[in-house]
């Protein structure tokens, strides 16, 4: 009897510590009613019931700079899994990897700040969760079913910060340093993420892998060097990378970075990207694809709508590796893969000082276009529409405004450019490099000149 009482008493104390009386549940933001608008993937998002069982797990935070709050985070998620709400309303330091792929019917409220320990970048190189694709890794990964992650952009917190500065500086002398992705969904089914700020990721901001029915909305992403006197290169800070995932919507968000704003990696299908404002990026990019010899990459049914792109290398972009393996840079080599890109539409795209408004290449990772012509890409591109584009490109390539180059006549088909109102700073007629595709479907001024893709991004 006494033992049972003590056990119950201890359990009650643990519950009280997770639902602290000093925390006001009514002060928490309500789960946002985010919906895919104006377009969805053709299928409604799964219904997510409210968390009415009253369980609130407030994650404890340590009191010094050398702490690791990961154990408390894990404890809270286990306590409030399957019907509860996890609250992160303080400043947390994550010093060890967190596997949160067991989640089910849980809300996660981040009104505080989640920082990742940057005291030893080589610790994370060894201890982060690894993905074979392009040597990626991640600090933590979320997965499961029916998970809503959200914050409150009306306050000055709701931040997930990767403290990327230490990694950006370290990679200057160690090009092969493995740098973790800030946030990953792996094996997630039916999830929303909204109203959060993400800062200074070591590598990509977000990886959505092996997941279905994901809605991302109202996010603020920023990678910015504020510490180096002469500035340091911020490499590979993709906003979202989608890999082996279906029915994804990313919308109404602002991204300041130095690489792809959104990238559709292999086997990304039925995806909508809409209402994004991207600055400093490499575009909304399909690919890169065909990197791994003998593997089949499928990307199809994408709708990219109402994008504002500023100070970018590219705007609307498709990048495919050549049909032969080629060396590009540390941690990124390849070519010879199989598959196709099909049914992709870029509709309403505003360009401000981007080097290229439109880019299609099947020579990614190789500066020698002659080699790419000799070994055409094995991966085909078809049923592509670029339409309703306006704005002005940068002076870098003036009067060129873009490039649409396929490596052989039978590698691309039904590629259209319609209502393209792009201008160049000189006021001359904008020119586009066009090769091995039907120019009768292109309402742009084509030239036959070609040049290799010199982009140095990671994938």
TrEMBL record:
<keyword id="KW-0326">Glycosidase</keyword>
<keyword id="KW-0456">Lyase</keyword>
<dbReference type="GO" id="GO:0005576">
    <property type="term" value="C:extracellular region"/>
</dbReference>
<dbReference type="InterPro" id="IPR012334">
    <property type="entry name" value="Pectin_lyas_fold"/>
</dbReference>
<keyword id="KW-0732">Signal</keyword>
<keyword id="KW-1015">Disulfide bond</keyword>
<dbReference type="GO" id="GO:0047911">
    <property type="term" value="F:galacturan 1,4-alpha-galacturonidase activity"/>
</dbReference>
<feature type="active site">
    <location>
        <position position="282"/>
    </location>
</feature>
<dbReference type="GO" id="GO:0004650">
    <property type="term" value="F:polygalacturonase activity"/>
</dbReference>
<dbReference type="InterPro" id="IPR000743">
    <property type="entry name" value="Glyco_hydro_28"/>
</dbReference>
<dbReference type="InterPro" id="IPR011050">
    <property type="entry name" value="Pectin_lyase_fold/virulence"/>
</dbReference>
<keyword id="KW-0378">Hydrolase</keyword>
<feature type="signal peptide">
    <location>
        <begin position="1"/>
        <end position="21"/>
    </location>
</feature>
<protein>
    <recommendedName>
        <fullName>galacturonan 1,4-alpha-galacturonidase</fullName>
        <ecNumber>3.2.1.67</ecNumber>
    </recommendedName>
</protein>
<dbReference type="GO" id="GO:0016829">
    <property type="term" value="F:lyase activity"/>
</dbReference>
<keyword id="KW-0964">Secreted</keyword>
<keyword id="KW-0677">Repeat</keyword>
<dbReference type="GO" id="GO:0071555">
    <property type="term" value="P:cell wall organization"/>
</dbReference>
<dbReference type="Pfam" id="PF00295">
    <property type="entry name" value="Glyco_hydro_28"/>
</dbReference>
<keyword id="KW-0961">Cell wall biogenesis/degradation</keyword>
<feature type="region of interest" description="Disordered">
    <location>
        <begin position="23"/>
        <end position="49"/>
    </location>
</feature>
<comment type="similarity">
    <text>Belongs to the glycosyl hydrolase 28 family.</text>
</comment>
<feature type="compositionally biased region" description="Polar residues">
    <location>
        <begin position="38"/>
        <end position="47"/>
    </location>
</feature>
<keyword id="KW-0325">Glycoprotein</keyword>
<dbReference type="GO" id="GO:0005975">
    <property type="term" value="P:carbohydrate metabolic process"/>
</dbReference>
């Amino acid at each position: 009897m006494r033992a049972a009482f003590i056990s119950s008493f201890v359990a009650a104390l643990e519950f009280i510590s997770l639902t602290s009386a000093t925390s006001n549940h009514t002060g928490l933001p309500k789960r946002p009613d985010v919906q895919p608008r104006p377009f969805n993937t053709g299928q409604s998002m799964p219904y997510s019931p409210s968390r009415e069982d009253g369980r609130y797990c407030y994650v404890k935070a340590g009191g010094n700079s050398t702490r690791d709050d990961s154990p408390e985070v894990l404890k809270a998620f286990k306590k409030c899994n399957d019907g509860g709400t996890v609250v992160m309303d303080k400043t947390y330091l994550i010093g060890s990897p967190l596997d949160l792929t067991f989640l089910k019917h849980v809300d996660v409220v981040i009104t505080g700040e989640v920082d990742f320990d940057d005291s030893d970048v080589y610790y994370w190189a060894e201890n982060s969760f690894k993905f074979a694709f392009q040597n990626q890794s991640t600090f933590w990964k979320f997965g499961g079913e029916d998970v809503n992650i959200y914050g409150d952009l009306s306050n000055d917190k709701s931040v997930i910060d990767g403290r990327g500065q230490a990694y950006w500086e370290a990679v200057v002398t160690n090009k092969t340093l493995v740098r973790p992705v800030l946030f990953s969904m792996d094996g997630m089914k039916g999830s929303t993420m909204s109203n959060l700020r993400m800062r200074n990721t070591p590598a990509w901001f977000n990886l959505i892998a092996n997941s279905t029915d994901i809605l991302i909305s109202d996010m603020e992403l920023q990678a910015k060097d504020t510490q180096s006197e002469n500035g340091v290169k911020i490499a590979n800070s993709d906003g979202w990378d989608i890999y082996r995932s279906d029915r994804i919507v990313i919308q109404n968000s602002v991204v300041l970075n130095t690489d792809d704003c959104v990238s559709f990696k292999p086997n990304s299908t039925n995806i909508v990207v809409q209402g994004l404002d991207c600055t400093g990026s490499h575009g909304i990019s399909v690919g890169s694809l065909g990197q791994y010899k003998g593997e089949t990459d499928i990307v199809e049914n994408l709708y990219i709508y109402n994008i504002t792109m500023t100070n970018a290398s590219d705007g609307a972009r498709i990048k495919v590796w050549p049909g032969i393996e080629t060396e590009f840079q540390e941690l990124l080599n390849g070519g010879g893969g199989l598959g196709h890109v099909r049914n992709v539409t870029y509709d309403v795209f505003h360009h401000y000082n981007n080097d290229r408004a439109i880019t299609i290449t099947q020579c990614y990772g190789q500066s020698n276009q002659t080699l790419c012509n000799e070994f055409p890409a094995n991966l085909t591109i078809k049923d592509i529409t670029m339409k309703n584009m306006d704005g002005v490109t940068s002076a870098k390539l003036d009067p060129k405004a873009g490039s649409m180059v396929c490596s052989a006549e039978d590698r691309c088909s039904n590629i259209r450019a319609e209502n393209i109102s792009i201008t160049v700073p000189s006021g001359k007629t904008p020119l586009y490099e066009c090769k091995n595709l039907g120019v009768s479907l292109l309402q742009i001024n084509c030239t036959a000149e070609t040049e290799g893709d010199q982009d140095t991004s990671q994938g």
